[in-house]
Amino acid sequence: MIRITVDDERFEGRDGQTIAGVLIGAGRIAWRTAQTGERGVFCGIGVCHDCLVTVNGLSGVRACQRAASDGDVIEREVRA
Ligand code: FES
Asked: I need a surface site. Which of 12, 16, 20, 73 has the fewest CB within 10 A?
């Protein structure tokens, strides 16, 4: 089991899950604010960049491609 923090909220997942997988598994469908509204996973294969988050201070990480690691601190991105 892994534990991550997203926007100061704690989530639990399984080893090997992506960040998006952990969030969707917990019922959360959006974690980025764009000009068009709240965004989460669109393509799910690393192409559209709708799922971008900041992970441990590194911005522009695709949540659908990055495996969640125990202790990750993830923050919402806001882009116009
Ligand atoms: S959902 Fe499209 S890149 Fe992640």
From this structure: 16
**Tens digit of pLDDT per residue, the chain (80 long)?**
999 999 999 999 999 999 999 999 999 999 999 998 999 999 999 999 999 999 999 999 999 999 999 999 999 999 76
pTM of the complete model:
0.94
DSSP string spanning 22-56? Answer: HHHHTT----EEETTEEE--SSSSSSS-TTEEEET
Choice from 45, 66, 74 to test ligand 1 binding pocket (greatest atom count within 8 A of CB): 45
